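Sample entry (125 residues):
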Amino acid sequence: KKLNPDWIRKGINDQAIEWSQEFAKYLAPENRGDRNALTTSQLRKFFGQLRRIEADYEKLNGEIPMLKPKLAYAVGKAGNYSRIRDFYDQMNIGLSAIDNSKENFNRFISLTESIVAFHKFHGGE
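Predicted structure, serialized as tokens:
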């Protein structure tokens, strides 16, 4: 399943939460030695950038498009075999749906926060 841009544009619903839980479970490590899992530091770094923009949205909202190349760099650094590639693909869908709207940005943050929470729940450290 893919992130539905309507969750960003129109509102988060039960389907969005179910998707975020399934996606976070997929991203989390399957076992201790799972090198392909999205790491907590990768996830937190992205989420931290969102929170920084949120703190001063009027001044920093121009940085939202730059989140895509920053994620692309993380993919290149980790290699294409890592699940960060899938995270990148889904976050790009969400970032594109923001459309310079603070409401949409806030919904994107909420959906990302849900992924962070479920990632932790499913074994992310």
